[in-house]
Amino acid sequence: MASEAEKTFQRFAVLGDSSSSGAEINNKNLSKLCQDCGITDGKTVTSEDVDAVFNKVKAKDAGTITFQQFTEAMKELGQKRFKEQSPDQGLEDIFKLMEGKNPATTGGFYQAASAGAVDRHTDTSKHTGSHEEHLDDSGKGKDIAGPEETTDNSGYGRGYKGDGTYDKKN
């Protein structure tokens, strides 16, 4: 039977990764877990600390860590976060922070990132230069066909200049 901490670990492990079994977690989701559960506080434990312990406990070429490696990482972070505690107590305190937590998706860190990335491309007020003329106010393309003067490219080969001109003498 999985502990509460392990259940939380699994919920974060599968986040945004449908192929994940929940047995291993990547660095991005580990950072999110630490952020959402209040393990990182920006003072004693920062996201840099999380990256550092992730890289320390993971296997050399691995992109993920197991729950066992995660436990080692949390023990180390627990010593930073709860300095006065023993490593085991610090780990327990971290696991208490994790109890019943779910990845925060409302207005959290994922939405902000993805929304911002798309907004930049569709917000016409931020467009500069000649390409801005190709978008209407809603950010949709206009005059997709391009300039009025379209060449008739039906016919043969590269140098061919329009259908029906083959027999005409210039």
From TrEMBL:
Keywords, alphabetical: Cytoplasm
GO CC annotations, alphabetized: cytoplasm; microtubule
Primary localization: cytoplasm
EF-hand domain location: 45-80
Disordered: annotated segments: 106-170
Compositionally biased intervals (Basic and acidic residues): 118-145, 160-170
Gene Ontology biological-process annotations: microtubule bundle formation; microtubule polymerization; positive regulation of protein polymerization
GO molecular function annotations of the record: calcium ion binding; tubulin binding
Localization per Swiss-Prot or TrEMBL: Cytoplasm
Top-level taxon in the UniProt lineage: Eukaryota
Family per similarity comment: Belongs to the TPPP family.
Protein name: EF-hand domain-containing protein
Species of provenance: Otolemur garnettii
Upper lineage: Eukaryota, Metazoa, Chordata, Craniata, Vertebrata
